[in-house]
Amino acid sequence: MSSTRKRVLVTGGAGFLGSHLCERLIADGHDVLCVDNYFTGRKDNVAPLLSCPQFEALRHDVCFPLYVEVDEIYNLACPASPVHYQHDPVQTTKTSVSGAINMLGLAKRLRAKIFQASTSEVYGDPTVHPQTEDYRGNVNPIGPRACYDEGKRCAETLFFDYYRQHKLRIRVARIFNTYGPRMHPNDGRVVSNFIVQALKGESITIYGDGKQTRAFCYVDDLIEGFIRLMAAPDDLTGPVNLGNPVETTVGELATKIVALVGSRSKIEYRPLPVDDPTQRCPNITQARTRLGWEPRVPLETGLKNTIAFFDRLLTENGTKTEAAKRIA
Ligand SMILES: NC(=O)c1ccc[n+]([C@@H]2O[C@H](COP(=O)([O-])OP(=O)(O)OC[C@H]3O[C@@H](n4cnc5c(N)ncnc54)[C@H](O)[C@@H]3O)[C@@H](O)[C@H]2O)c1
């Protein structure tokens, strides 16, 4: 139990990252209020926490003001994968922008410290590799990804205006590709797509030639980064890149997953979607030097945990996975 027990609000707390964060905060001895409208979040993600007296869940859309009493706010509410955020792009921008305004307003009233889950997408299709926090990005403001990219950029602007104008204590993390248990099975993200396809024994679909690189951070590592950034001295406002600087090509990832699942899936190539970045890799010098943080979980370990999660999920939903077929 922590000696400095806090009341912490996590918006988007029933989502992939949010549910891991709620779990971690409770393990650290804090009281957690999870706020979510369940657009992409699932009650199952936080179900094990419901019996815990330190945990409370509230259905609420961050586009509307919220009046609660807390000491710290982590603002994660926002659909994060292209399939989800492009489903209702206007709502995506509203969630990022109105959500930020409402949560910053709450933080201002309470004088609470507030953390923003920003994204590497603020760099757009970068012309600089790896990306440092001072790179200003190459974003198409009118493309199909803009509702997310520009929404998150505007949220960062709002955070820094509240910091300058109202002396709010802010923390802005730019999160790069993160994976792990509780990712959505149908969100089109490369790790979940490949694992689900491999477990079902379906062809693995690679968009483009598979040479585009991504840098994958395991969820436990990322959450450790959130906690360290929130606890850092107040002059460390960010933005701070949090992600894994080790690049893997999408093709290599597919091969690794097929091998770990022991699947007979073949690899199929499809055209690259509009504005899909060809390379994305964080420079994490700031996180290393100021937070003493860097990813520790090897890709293979993280993938095994994630595969085990999806195997359970698919089996519960009645799908006979490759692992189940081998055992049968
Ligand atoms: N996972 C990643 O790799 C990654 C990378 C960069 C940034 N991020 C950011 O981290 C945050 C969490 O991402 P995630 O991967 O857990 O995605 P997720 O979709 O699993 O979680 C987002 C959560 O926000 C909730 N939500 C959406 N709109 C809301 C609204 N208007 N009001 C209240 N709740 C709302 C959803 O129901 C969901 O529970 C997001 O802000 C995302 O932009 C994630």
List keywords for this structure.
globular, 13 strands, alpha/beta, two-stranded parallel sheet, binds nicotinamide-adenine-dinucleotide, 11 helices
Largest sheet: 7 strands, parallel
Give the strand content. 15-25%
Listing every helix as H and every strand as E from the N terminus to the C terminus, the arrangement reads EHEHEEHHEHEEHEEEHEEHEHHH
Q: Structural class from helices and strands?
A: alpha/beta
Q: What is the overall shape? A: globular
Q: How many β-strands, per DSSP?
A: 13
- What is the count of DSSP helices, taking H or I runs of 4+ residues? 11
Fraction of helical residues: 25-40%
Rg, nearest Å: 19 Å
pLDDT < 50 runs, ≥5 residues: none
Determine the mean pLDDT. 94
- CA distance, first residue to last residue: 45 Å
Q: Spell out which ligands are present.
A: nicotinamide-adenine-dinucleotide
Strand order of the largest sheet: 3-2-1-4-5-6-11
Describe this structure in words.
This protein has 328 residues and is α/β, with parallel strands linked by helices. Helices cover 40% and strands 16% of the residues. The chain is built from eleven helices and 13 strands. α2 (43-46) links the parallel β2 and β3. α1 (16-27) packs across α7 (219-231), α4 (89-110) runs parallel beside α5 and α6 (190-200) packs parallel to α8 (250-261). The longest helix is centred in the N-terminal third of the chain and has 22 residues, at 89-110. It starts with 6 loop residues before the first strand and ends with a helix. The model has no long low-confidence stretch (mean pLDDT 94). The structure holds nicotinamide-adenine-dinucleotide. Nicotinamide-adenine-dinucleotide binds next to α1, α4 and β5. Nicotinamide-adenine-dinucleotide is lined by residues 11-12, 14-18, 36-41, 61-63, 76-80, 84, 95, 99, 117, 119, 175, 177-178.
